[in-house]
Write a structure and sequence with these properties.
Length: 165
Amino acid sequence: MAKLYEIVGELQDFINTNEGLEDEQAYKDTLEALQGELDDKVSQWARCIKNMEAERNAVKEEADRLAKRAKTIDSQVTHMKDTLLMFLKAAGRDKAGDAVIKASIAKNGGKAPLIVDYINAEDLPQEFQKVTISANNDAIREALESGEQLEWARIGERGEHINIK
């Protein structure tokens, strides 16, 4: 069976070279045959795409299931470590365990936590404020759609996609 690009090429060549043929029925029959071949090939592609989408969805569901499982395990580990820390502190011990495996209390590295009592950012002295500027895309779009010309912005064209049902 021919490849998709070959079928489209044959169809384009036939249409371009056989327009206005005297034998209208032969033209229609050949055109119908080429279009039928295209329909068959598109159906094959569509089936393949649907199968791949189904496989992708199954893989995503499994990944989500595994991510949830990993999150549950992380929560259990955190709870167990917090509990162990609490009991070691209550027992007045910095470490405990046997010759094979031990647990010990250690200080966290990095900078000490910064504690800022609740205050609105605009009420802070200016040297402790950070200003962030970003484009107002809604205002830019509105200006362009109302006919304003902006040399640094324009509305692009929407893309196209294939729906398979």
